[in-house]
Specification:
The chain is of the alpha/beta class. It is built from 8 helices and 9 strands. It folds into 2 domains: 164 residues, NAD(P)-binding Rossmann-like Domain (Rossmann fold, 3-Layer(aba) Sandwich), CATH 3.40.50.720; 46 residues, no CATH class.
């Protein structure tokens, strides 16, 4: 296994996801007054240079690569892979020309076996943003190569693919490797705070006797036999997976 720690990989990729969230929020939200406080963006921990390879050089892949570079110091994109040569050329042009990377033409791999060549190029971790059909097969190859992995969502397109990804994830964990997925909205601090407040309010009301809630004018809440479902006497039902957490693995676009 390479010398990159799980802690540093998670810190780097999580910071990249937070950068993506911050950038999207800045573009979508109205311009704030100059006096309003702006939260600091999370940064990846320091240390030696982390070399990342990008598999899938379309718009999402290029965006993920830029988010990665924005996440902190000592982060580099050193290799590219895609089925189509024009996608590799475009990514190389942007990363070298606009972001100061030094990706030689010899490290831009093309074809259906390009991902294998990238894994042999000396990268420390992989950013995977191909169409999801390729995800299970490529993920297995990345883990076999003992590389940490950030991959976009969805992780597969069918049940066998999802099961294969789950099995590979278990193998990665046994090898001390980190695998993270693009669910960055779960790491958006504002969304996490809203979720926490809703959860805490639900817990407080669930401990309140039904007669007390009714006397206070609020609808009584009763817990059904399912551990993941809370039903209200008004007839509405709110469902959340048992044990769900906003801190689940990170980032893509949505």
């Amino acid at each position: 296994m390479n010398e990159i720690s799980r802690r540093r990989f998670i810190g780097s990729v999580a910071a990249a996801g937070a950068v993506a969230v911050s950038a999207g929020a800045a573009e979508a939200a109205p311009r704030r007054q100059a006096t309003s406080a702006q939260p600091a963006r999370p940064q990846a921990p320091g240390g030696r240079v982390l070399k990342a390879g990008l598999i899938g050089c379309g718009g999402r892949g290029r965006g993920a690569a830029l988010n990665f570079l924005d996440a902190g110091p000592n982060l580099q994109i050193t290799a590219l892979a895609d089925v189509f040569p024009d996608r590799v050329a475009k990514a190389r042009e942007i990363l070298n020309g606009q972001r100061g990377q030094d990706i030689p033409e010899s490290r831009g791999f093309t074809g259906f076996d390009a991902y294998k060549k990238l894994l042999d190029s000396g990268v420390d971790l992989v950013i995977h943003a191909t169409p999801p059909h390729f995800r299970p097969m490529h993920m297995a190859a990345v883990v076999d190569a003992r590389k940490h992995l950030f991959m976009e969502k969805p992780v597969a397109v069918d049940v066998p693919g999802v099961k294969a990804v789950m099995q590979t994830a278990e193998r990665a964990a046994s090898l001390g490797l980190s695998v993270m997925t693009g669910t960055q909205l779960r790491r958006d601090t504002a969304r996490m705070e809203v979720w926490k407040r809703v959860r805490d309010a639900a817990r407080r009301r669930s401990r309140q006797p039904a007669w007390a809630a009714t006397r206070a004018g609020a609808p009584a809440i009763s817990t059904t036999s399912s551990a993941s479902t809370t039903s209200m006497t008004m007839g509405s039902t709110c469902t959340a997976p048992s044990g769900s957490s906003m801190a689940a693995p990170m980032s893509g676009r949505r």
